[in-house]
Write a structure and sequence with these properties.
GO terms for molecular function: fluoride channel activity; metal ion binding. The chain is mostly helical. About 85% of the residues lie in helices and about 0% in strands.
């Protein structure tokens, strides 16, 4: 049995609850958009996690249980590396797979960077008030 020390029940419940939301959102998008949905959720998730980290969490605007629930639970369940990998393997040509990989990795990095910059800038604006 895995023993976890210093984990609060509220945090576990938060990760569970927000994980259900993130997983459900990903599932609904995948029904509508197939493999395009995987790229979309991973790109959106990259932005959201960076924004959460650099604005909400770093500024400690939310209690720890809520920021963990949103980041690890919702964004973690919303994004998916395993589906990303299976989608790449299912593409018919090397060119398609390469394009998918590049859009996902480069786009994810750029959106995470954008989320970070936006979070930092909004944090500085909020500090002036």
């Amino acid at each position: 049995m895995i023993e976890v020390q210093n984990v609060k029940l509220g945090t576990l419940i938060s990760v569970f609850f927000f994980g259900m939301i993130g997983g459900t959102l990903r599932y609904l998008l995948s029904l509508k958009l197939a493999s395009t949905g995987t790229i979309l959720v991973n790109l959106i998730g990259s932005f959201c996690l960076a924004f959460l980290t650099y604005y909400v969490i770093e500024r400690q605007k939310l209690p720890a249980w809520l920021s963990t629930g949103l980041g690890t639970g919702m964004v973690g369940a919303f994004t998916t590396f395993s589906t990303f990998t299976v989608d790449i393997l299912g593409l018919s040509t090397f060119t398609d797979a390469t394009f998918y990989l590049l859009i996902s990795v480069v786009g994810g990095f750029l959106l995470a960077y954008t989320g970070m910059i936006l979070g930092i800038k909004l944090g500085k604006v909020g500090d002036r008030r």
